[in-house]
Amino acid sequence: MFKNIVAACVLLGASGLVAAQMTPVGSWHTIDDETKEIKSEVQIVDNGGVLSGKVTKLLRKGAKQDAICDKCSDDRKDKPVLGLEIIRGAKKAEGKDVWEDGKILDPEKGSTYSLRLTPIEGGKKLEVRGSLFGIGRTQTWVRAQ
After folding, report:
1. 63, 55 Cβ separation under 8 angstroms
2. What Å distances lie between residue 39 and 5, 20, 59, 98, CA to CA?
3. pLDDT, tens digit, 9 for 90 and up, residues 125-141
4. How many CA atoms lie within 13 A of 70 on its CB side?
5. How far is CA 60 from the centre of its chain?
6. Which of 8, 58, 100, 102: CA 20 to 30 A from 135?
7. Contact 121/103 with Cβ under 8 angstroms?
């Protein structure tokens, strides 16, 4: 009987860990669309139900660690890419494991896009959809260990 109770507690604890991972909150490796190499690490945080994300590491080979967002046109113009907030304002859609209504910045182009974040594969990966006027692209980010 005691073994059954312990086993049930372990299973409940493990299922809680899996459920907790079905969120964009955490550290993610961004992947270059063309080379498929890791570009950067982005830390996504939850501030009262609203997600934001900052670049915490530049990981691409040859990346300039002192790069600035010289193509940005808002308050991020000429700010260092390292530490730059690239995700703003995403909120969880009611009844779904999808976060939307936010914006994402491509610091290389200085462009801002509408954002949708969808955890996949048990939260190990994150589909990041940026679009402008309904046209866009989806990247798959990988949860950093």
Report:
1. no
2. 45, 26, 5, 24
3. 999 999 999 899 999 99
4. 3
5. 17
6. 58
7. no
**In this structure, what token pair is assigned to residue 16?**
């809680």
Q: How far is CA 46 from CA 10, 26, 89, 99, 138, in A?
A: 27, 9, 10, 11, 22
- The DSSP 8-state label assigned to residue 93 in this structure reads P
By CB atoms closer than 10 A (0-12, 13-18, 19+), residue 116 is: buried
Q: How many residues does the chain have?
A: 145
Q: Return the CATH architecture of domain 23-143.
A: Beta Barrel (2.40)
Beta strand 85-92 with 99-106 is: antiparallel
Query: H-helix or E-strand containing 17?
Result: helix 2-21
pTM score of the predicted model: 0.83
